[in-house]
Amino acid sequence: QVHLVESGGGLVQPGGSLRLSCAASGFTFSSYSMRWYRQVAPGKERQLVASISAVGTTYYADSVRGRFTISRDNAKNTVHLQMNSLKPKDTAVYYCNVPRSGIDYWGQGTQVTVSS
């Protein structure tokens, strides 16, 4: 059973940093791409923020490129999202995602609020 648990969200001032983590279990973590999405409000579409392939190839949305860094630790079955120079528009619930066998699996999300 696939299980994803996000952590690391919180309240931070503009210009600050946060590091999100997603602990994964129930599948061969090292074989799959992992993604971070965010949702700015309930009912809004979740937007892809960053992804990392099984071999470490990364992708970033234009809005976060140069500020966010995605990484993975296959020994700990964990994917991270380092977020620097945070802006109020980064405020959202951040979700970890793994597409597997045609099904998208999601964590419960972690709230990130950027405000002074």
Radius of gyration in whole Å, from Cα? 13 Å
Distance between the termini: 40 Å
Q: How would you state the average pLDDT, rounded?
A: 97
**Helix-strand pattern:** EEEEEEEEEEE
Share of residues in strands: over 45%
Main sheet overview: 7 strands, mixed
Low-confidence stretches: none
The counted number of beta strands is: 11
Structural class: mainly beta
Measured as a percent range, the helix fraction is under 10%
Textual characterization of the structure:
This protein is mostly beta strands and 116 residues long. Helices cover 0% and strands 53% of the residues. The protein is built from no helices and eleven strands. The protein has strands at residues 3-7, 10-12, 18-25, 34-39, 47-52, 58-60, 68-73, 78-83, 92-100, 103-106, 110-114. The strands form two sheets. Strands 2, 4, 5, 6, 9, 10 and 11 form a seven-stranded mixed β-sheet that branches. A hairpin with a 7-residue loop joins strand 4 (34-39) and strand 5 (47-52). It starts with a strand and ends with a strand. The model has no long low-confidence stretch (mean pLDDT 97).
Q: Can you lay out the helices and strands and say which pair or pack?
A:
Elements: E1 3-7, E2 10-12, E3 18-25, E4 34-39, E5 47-52, E6 58-60, E7 68-73, E8 78-83, E9 92-100, E10 103-106, E11 110-114
Parallel strand pairs: 2-11
Antiparallel strand pairs: 1-3, 3-8, 4-5, 4-9, 5-6, 7-8, 9-10, 9-11
Summarize the structure.
The protein has 116 residues and is an all-beta fold. It has strands at 3-7, 10-12, 18-25, 34-39, 47-52, 58-60, 68-73, 78-83, 92-100, 103-106, 110-114. The mean pLDDT is 97.
